Amino acid sequence: MKRFVSAVFAMAVSFSAFAAGIDSRVYNCAGLHAAITANRFVFINYPSFMDFAVANVSFCSGGEMLQLRSVPTSDNPECLVNYCRHQGGRGN
């Protein structure tokens, strides 16, 4: 039982860290994609991004569409990630 509680706590803390925001520059591009896939979405707190990167369109709400946007990583200054954008042209 203690192991189960520890595992749940570790997952909650890990998820909270990703939801609170990550610096994309500490990941390589493949690692950032893996983190987004594993957590379904992450908040990237890089100053020119400051938005959620999402695993797929199912994390976009009504009136939003999936679009690619670049963010810097340790190995790629323009690593492309998915994010949700309003269809009317106004970004998040």
Notes on the protein architecture:
With 92 residues, the protein is α+β, with helices and mostly antiparallel strands. It has one domain (2-86). Helix content is 33%, strand content 26%. The chain has helices at 2-20, 29-39; strands at residues 41-44, 51-54, 64-71, 79-86. The chain has a two-stranded antiparallel sheet with strand order 1-2. The radius of gyration is 14 Å and the shape is globular. The relative contact order is 0.17. The model is unreliable at 2-10 (pLDDT under 50).
The major β-sheet equals: 2 strands, antiparallel
Morphology call: globular
Distance between the termini: 42 Å
Number of domains: 1
Assign a percent range to the helix content: 25-40%
- As an assembly, this protein is single chain
Query: What structural class results from the helix and strand content?
Result: alpha+beta
Number of strands: 4
> How are the strands ordered across the major sheet?
1-2
Look at the structure and give the mean pLDDT.
83
Number of helices, where a helix is a run of at least 4 consecutive DSSP H or I residues: 2
Low-confidence region ranges: 2-10
In N-to-C order, the SSE pattern is HHEEEE
* Rg (CA only): 14 Å
Query: What proportion strand?
Result: 25-35%
